[in-house]
Amino acid sequence: MTPRSGLDITTSGTAVDTAALIALPWDVPLAEWPESALAALPRGLSRHVVRFAHLEGAVVAVKETTEFSARREYQLLRRLERLDVPCVEPVAVVAGRIDPDGEPLPTVLVTRHLRFSLPYRAVFSRRLHRDTLTRLIDALALLLVELHLSGFYWGDVSLSNTLFRRDAGAFAAYLVDAETGELHPSLSRGQREHDLELARVNVAGELMDLMSGGLVEGDVDPVATSQLIIDAYRRLWEELTADMSFRPGERWRVEERIRRLNSLGFDVEEYAIRTTRDGSELVLQPKVVDPGHHQRRLLGLTGLDVQENQARRLLRDIDEYRAVNHPEMDEHEAAHRWLTEVFEPVALSIPANLSSKLEPAEVMHQLLEHRWYLSENQSRSVPLDEALESYLQTVLPHRRDEDAVVLHPTTTMLKAVELPSENYD
Amino acid sequence: MASVELRGITVQYPSARTPALDGLDLWAQDGRFTVVTGVLRSGKSTLLRVVAGQEPPDAGRVLIGGVDVTEVPAHDRDAVIVFQNYALYPHMDVQENMSFALRVAGVPPAERQARVREAARLLDLEEQLDWTPERLTGPQRQQVALARAVVRRPAVLLMDDPLTTLPPALKDHTAELIRSLARTLDVTTLYATAEPGPVIPVADRLLRLDSGQLREDTAVS
Fold it and tell me: Residue A422: its pLDDT value, please?
């Protein structure tokens, strides 16, 4: 398709192959795009027209909006990306669209679909269990803390505006919609409280909706449950930012506090210590805390870039591997050996037809859980090879493909998109 | 009486070089539609948050209906910001979509129902109350989204540029709805926007902010 004159595409140098982007049918209203260009067709209640399209073997979300909104959200997502905030990847803004009759068409924002991410309505197959709900809420609270630490006021906090990736028994949350957001050097208490109130009301509404659809298991009080996000947020915010007083002879408490934050998954990049007026005590205040403590440690040891809880789980396995097999080795050497002798053989053993079920790191986590389960049942230490064979035969084939599940936030449609096989090579 | 009065309000965000609101004095009359305009970061949204109780001022007092509410928490103030979330929930009918925030706020069922019926009448949604959202047209969905604010029956309605992210077709319709509501409802409204054009026909006053200070105060006839 030849692009019409006047097409104005803004994209970063590395985001996408521009030729592939230009080839999309920009002179056609998004609602009328041919099926051949689409990965899935969301129908529904959004005020914007949104479609999922194929682009270079990946899936992108294309949203028609105003030029002002598209450019603003694109720039905001790029800034968030640079701050390492978990969010969808902005690909392009396409303005200046006109149809064959010369009539102007709305500007679009293009974002890349996050692989193996799930909308909240897709994390359960039939009904949402209470413990799954709690894990979703915990993940959203953690995301909100991370956003607020980065100075991002969201303005529309909800489960619908979030994508979730499995993370070793928990979920990792990613921001999807930044349309109402603002990025500041830091946030005031009022800005944070406004986001929390939005979260409380929106999550309650989303739960009431699921209950109306018979999609929640058992009795769940939507109002009380939505309050959990506030509680989880406040607990974590307090842990990360509150002052801690200690006596001059208790300097070990600084180390203790930092270890505590590390265990929560945060590194303390900068902290301030001041004395109280009478000089009897010191006050420690964390100034810059950075999520991803275990992620960074695993990345440094093995080069694997995974979610925080997956990293925590894999680091534990590396420690066990080292203690049992190579206690003489230093941590880096043992981690490298674990990578080549344990992780990579497991990742390579996943048959191609099962590779779109879960990410390799999540497979590894589940395999370790499966081995523990088998060992307990059989009252013996089941070797990893044996557990792997069992897992690949009895567990993984029965899971849903989660590589490219798309669900527009305000629709009830769910579809696992088929991707070209070379995508998994 | 639900006039809004700000006396010497200053809000200084952490790390910002200049205050978002800088000793601002402002008075919005009871039942009138006041448009607050200004460029990006002029202080418009902060002003609304201060009135709603979501942004505690560093200095100054906030009065609603002549009562000092500076220390009153947001949930106990009679002022509501129209959320920018227009998402409708697919499994809930229109009535439930309109009233869920009242349920979150603990309003009893009979009271919720009465308020929903009143808002439905104002927004011409009476026949659609038991419909699910998928049966609604785009403009009708906007009506439901606005009805969510109306059912709260606030003494002060705060609108933070509700048109800005809407596609052109819905923007015109929603502007007309807001104009219609402004004429019908006896509620003090503060409407913040960089583009006041669509609501000028119903505006009583136009205030222009710049760098957190009031630069112009014009009566609109």
Answer: 35
A29 interface with B at CB cutoff 8 Å: no
Exposed (0-12), middle (13-18) or buried (19+): which is A103, by Cβ within 10 Å? Answer: exposed
In angstroms, rounded to a whole number, what is the distance separating the alpha carbons of residues B98 and B121? 13
pLDDT of residue B9: 97
CB spacing of B85 vs A197 below 8 angstroms: no
| Number of residues assigned to chain A | 425
Examine the pLDDT at B197 and tell me if it is beyond 90. no
Long-range pairs of A317-326 with CB within 8 A, sequence gap ≥ 24:
A317/A342, A317/A364, A317/A368
Complex prediction ipTM: 0.79
State the pTM of this model: 0.82
Which residue do the tokens 């969808």 mark? A88
By the CB < 8 Å criterion, does B56 face chain A? yes
Residues of chain A with pLDDT under 70: 1-5, 13-16, 40-47, 125, 404-425
Any idea what DSSP says for residue A388? H
Instruction: Give the helix ranges, DSSP H, for A281-404.
Output: 293-302, 308-325, 331-338, 344-348, 360-378, 384-394
Given an 8 Å threshold on Cβ–Cβ distance, is A156 in contact with B85?
yes
Of all helices (H) and strands (E), which one includes residue B177? helix B168-184
Q: Which residues of A touch B92 (CB under 8 A)?
A: 208-209, 212
What percent of chain A is modeled with pLDDT above 90?
46
What's the pLDDT at A152?
Answer: 95
List of chain B residues whose C-beta atoms are within 8 Å of the C-beta of residue A197: 54, 74-75
